[in-house]
UniProtKB/TrEMBL annotation:
Pyrroline-5-carboxylate reductase catalytic N-terminal domain sequence ranges: 9-93
Functional note: Catalyzes the reduction of 1-pyrroline-5-carboxylate (PCA) to L-proline.
EC number annotated for this UniProt entry: 1.5.1.2
Enzyme class (EC, first level): oxidoreductase
Pfam family, one: F420_oxidored
Listed pathway(s): Amino-acid biosynthesis; L-proline biosynthesis; L-proline from L-glutamate 5-semialdehyde: step 1/1
Biological processes annotated in GO: L-proline biosynthetic process
Family: Belongs to the pyrroline-5-carboxylate reductase family.
Name of the protein in its database record: Pyrroline-5-carboxylate reductase
Gene: proC
Predominant location: cytoplasm
InterPro entries listed in its UniProt record: 6-PGluconate_DH-like_C_sf, NAD(P)-bd_dom_sf, P5C_Rdtase_cat_N, P5CR-like_CS, P5CR_dimer, Pyrroline-COOH_reductase
Reaction equations catalysed: L-proline + NADP(+) = (S)-1-pyrroline-5-carboxylate + NADPH + 2 H(+); L-proline + NAD(+) = (S)-1-pyrroline-5-carboxylate + NADH + 2 H(+)
Annotated Gene Ontology cellular component terms: cytoplasm
Amino acid sequence: MTKTFLQFGCGNMGGAMLKGWLAGGLAPETFTVVDPYLEAAPHGVRLLEAAPAGEDAFDIVLLGFKPQQLPDAAQAVRPFVGPRTLLLSILAGVDLATLRRTFPEARAIVRVMPNLAAALGKSPIALFGDADEAARAETDALMAPLGQAEWLSGEDQMDLVTALAGSGPAFVYRFIDALAEGAAALGLPRDQADRLALSMVEGSAMLAAASEHSPGELARRVASPGGVTQVGIDILDAERRLARLVEDTLRGARDRSAEMTEQARARQQ
Ligand SMILES: NC(=O)C1=CN([C@@H]2O[C@H](COP(=O)(O)OP(=O)(O)OC[C@H]3O[C@@H](n4cnc5c(N)ncnc54)[C@H](OP(=O)(O)O)[C@@H]3O)[C@@H](O)[C@H]2O)C=CC1
Ligand SMILES: O=C(O)[C@@H]1CCC=N1
């Protein structure tokens, strides 16, 4: 039997997931999207400004709005979450206990941490929830068109994984920008620097994903002894500059996720 799918919030992240699901062959008619802001949904998807009146629980409900919007949205979502519902939440910094207290009826609740590459089926996806084996298998099947899913062994890892997998693209985009900006400062026309930096990062990531070698080993293979690359690597590595910068970046983002988790708990009391 075809599963019914209700998605609350279809902005940047929810929209990327919907795109990924449709590209993966899921039938658009099974999706109902509730989003007060969205002007149009992909062909075949039912788009509503507000929760559908007089309808029963859905098989799958996705929470895709901002974490701070949960208290306002909860009342509208609740009628559609019943004992047959697999509830998926992409809300950063809203823990399972808060979700369970808000939606006690749900068959299973799974926190999902993807990123925008879900639209291309290329997202890392961290999962944690109170799903039994059947609900886990259902979740795995649902995530397959969006990318590479992994279940976390503990919810305490979710804040860090949010920083790495969820926020990560932003950090990589800033690095691409910094490469282009640096090259422009050293003399290349900016538009050419942008193109070269982006295609270099695209090719490097594809090569690393396809290679049997680790990124560390690949870096070693690029750097000819006594050549050009090693000088640049030595600057990145001096006093662990790059490693410390990245660790600080992840720590800050992780700590903000933990802080948001506390705030979401407090809002619920
Ligand atoms: N952006 C990303 O890369 C990632 C985001 N996330 C998580 O995804 C969630 C969404 O983030 P993002 O897509 O960036 O945010 P957006 O603001 O782009 O999208 C949220 C959408 O939900 C709509 N909305 C608000 N309230 C409701 C409601 N009650 N019912 C239905 N729809 C509603 C918003 O409308 P309006 O604008 O009118 O409020 C908006 O269109 C967040 O919880 C975030 O933590 C997770 C991983 C990565
Ligand atoms: O910035 C945020 O809060 C969300 C979570 C991960 C990516 N975007």
